[in-house]
Structure formats: C-alpha cells, structure tokens
Write a structure and sequence with these properties.
It contains 16 helices and 15 strands. The protein has helices at 12-22, 36-40, 56-64, 76-79, 81-90, 101-118, 131-141, 164-174, 177-190, 220-230, 249-265, 269-276, 287-291, 320-335, 347-350, 352-361, and strands at 2-7, 29-33, 48-50, 66-71, 93-96, 121-123, 150-159, 198-200, 207-208, 212-215, 237-246, 294-303, 306-315, 343-344, 366-369. The relative contact order is 0.17.
Length: 371
C-alpha cells in the first residue's frame, strides 16, 4: 500500500508534482501510467504501476494500492472518470487539477453516493483552480462573526501563461456550454441542501475598485458555493463574487474581447481544432517564464458589522505553485486529522484549516489579514 500514487507523472505538471513528492522524507509513493519506460526515466526510483484509463481493471488496481490517488491526466471529461470510479469503489481518496465544471458535476451524479458509502473523499480542483479561492474564502469567513449573513468578494491580479493541458481543458469546456448547463441542472435537482440557508455565487457586474474588475467565468465560484452549503460557519445567507482586476481600461476591454473570441472559436469544430493545434498537451512555459508568474488575491469580507480584508498570494500559480498545492492536498488527506466527511467534497470541506496550515508552512501560499 502506497501513501500516494501519482497518475500522469510524465506530463508537464505531473513532472513538477513528482519532483515535489520526491523531496518529502519518509513518503511511500509510486507513479502510474501507460508507459513504464517513460515513468522509470523520471529517475525518482519509486515503484511504477502500469495502468491505462481505458483499462478498468488496471485503474482499479492502482486505486486498491493507494491511500490517495493524484491525477493530472486531462481533459478530465475525456480521461478522468475511470479513476474517480475506481477510487469511489475502493474507498481511496482522490485529488485532481480539473477546472471543468461539467466533469465535476457528472462525477457527483455518478459516483458521489458510492464514495460516501466507501469513505473516499473525491476532491476536485486542487490546484490554482480552486485552492486559493476556496481556502481564501474560508480563511476570510473565519475572521468574521458567526451566525450572521456574510458577503465575500475576491479580486485577482497576476500574470502567467497556460500549459497545453490547461488550454485544451478550457477549450473543451467552452465548446460544451449546453451540456455543461444541463448537467448543472441535473446536479442541482439531485442535491439535498440545508433548509433555512441561502448561497449566492452568481457573477456580479463589472466594478471599478482602484482598477477595472471583471467577473471571472471559472469553476472557482461553484467550488466556493459548495463549501458554503457544506459548512454552517458560512452563515445563514452567504454571497460570493469573484473578479479579475486590471489597471487600465484598454486591458479590460482586450481581456473581455479575447475571452469572447476564444469562446466563439471553440463552438465550431474546424476553428476549435485550429485552436487546439496552437499548443499541445505536455507543453508549457519555460522556467524563466514561470519564475516571472505571480498572483495576489484580495478578499473583502463583510458581515455582522465587521469588515475584513485578507490576502492570498503565491508564485508560479499554474505550475510550480499548483504542484505544491495538489501535493500538499494529497499529503493532507494521507496523514492529517481532517474532517470526517466522504463523497465528492471541496478542499474547504475535506481539509480546511489543516490544509491552510500545510500551505503556509511550506510557503506554497501566503495567507494574511491586512491591517
């Protein structure tokens, strides 16, 4: 039995995660994938489990031999379900890096109940999507009064470029807007939510707050919303808004126009294939480019007559930072005293303060209250 098995260790982000895990003293871990030679060539000297996501028996064997499975193999809508299913069946904790709402909702509909029965924690979005947002909101909420309506707004600033895998996942999600909406409705109908409480994470209008703040069409607000439903500490009436901020109006217009154009091109097969051919999975920024990447999230929390401003920040958010986040999430599930929950759960609900502590100690992320 291994503490952690990493699936997809030969990919761009997978290599960074493997390098991070190799530095954890006393950890029993292994790598898994289709190509034994490529996995052995990583040079970490750990066991290699040969498995293919199209071979259910081999994936089930990986799940049975791990306390926690980490997977970087995306787009998850195409490749992710066999591992979720295997972990839910085996009672093995599972973490991934997906930012695909349709995948997350489908996995809830198909595997949540099985995971809840087996004791497995299925935790999606354990990288830059969505740990800084989900745990940043929890950190902010804990600074506010209990039992009152709470409102939290997040404002992101930063810079960097996507890897091929991230870009392919984003384009795939944009091409499936109707399916994504239909799956979200099915999940909403299937979920049981606490009576007497409300949660609102719908996009807000653009704002000017020392810069131009645009609503972010990402999975993060949905993850935050699930945490708010799961944790009574978020109060009887919780509202969350999330924005990307830029200093100048031309930048804001270019960002909005670029996102609109990308979404439009993703709708038609010829233009979608053209987009996907611009960068291939496994490609990513150079080390020099990554070293220049950064982000800062500022949270404004209000409730019960109290107002608090907190910050979560880090370097190389999409890659080195994400590798640390997902690795520490897996280590937290493997070794820490975490909340007694099971099924598909968020990072805040599954790990919460123990994971915040890990991320602070390892300097993967900085959490602070602005005075």
């Amino acid at each position: 039995m291994h503490d952690i098995v990493l699936f997809g260790a030969t990919g761009y982000t997978g290599k960074l995660i493997a390098r991070y895990l190799a530095g954890v003293e006393g950890l029993s871990w292994a790598v898994a994938g289709r190509d034994r030679e490529r996995l052995e060539a990583l040079g970490h000297g750990v066991p290699v489990l040969v498995a293919d996501v199209n071979d259910a028996a081999s994936v089930a064997e990986v799940a049975r031999r791990a306390r926690v499975v980490v997977t970087t193999v995306g787009p998850y809508l195409r490749y992710g379900e066999p591992l979720v299913a295997a972990c839910a069946q085996a009672g093995t904790h599972y973490v991934d890096l997906t930012g695909e709402p349709e995948f997350v909702n489908l996995m809830y509909l198909r595997h949540h109940e099985r995971a809840a029965a087996s004791g497995a924690k299925i935790v999606h979005a354990c990288g830059f999507d969505s740990i800084p947002y989900d745990l940043g909101v929890l950190y902010t909420v804990l600074e506010l009064p209990e039992g009152v309506p709470l409102k939290v707004s997040a404002f992101l600033r930063g810079g960097g470029r996507p890897s091929g895998g991230t870009f392919h996942s984003a384009v795939t999600a944009m091409s499936r807007v109707r399916q994504m909406a239909a799956t979200a409705l099915r999940r909403r109908a299937a979920e049981t939510r606490p009576a007497g409480r409300s949660v609102d994470v719908l996009p807000g209008p653009p704002r000017f707050v020392g810069g131009y703040a645009l609503p972010m069409p990402t999975i993060d607000p949905q993850i935050v919303g699930r945490s708010a439903w799961a944790l009574e500490r978020y109060g009887p009436d919780f509202t969350y808004r999330q924005y990307m901020t830029v200093r100048r109006l031309p930048e804001a217009l270019a960002m909005a126009g670029g996102a609109t154009a990308l979404a439009a091109l993703a709708q038609l097969r010829p233009t979608r294939e053209w987009l996907l051919n611009r960068i291939t999975p496994g490609e990513g920024p150079t080390l020099e480019q990554r070293e220049k990447s950064w982000f800062k999230l500022t949270f404004l929390g209000e409730g019960g007559g109290t107002r608090v401003v907190t910050e979560v920040s880090g370097r190389d958010p999409g890659y080195g930072g994400t590798a640390k986040m997902v690795a520490e999430a897996a280590l937290c599930l493997a070794f820490d005293d975490t909340p007694q929950v099971a099924g598909q759960v968020t990072t805040a609900a599954a790990m919460g303060e123990p994971l915040i502590g890990r991320l602070r100690r390892t300097e993967a992320l900085s959490f602070s209250v602005r005075s």
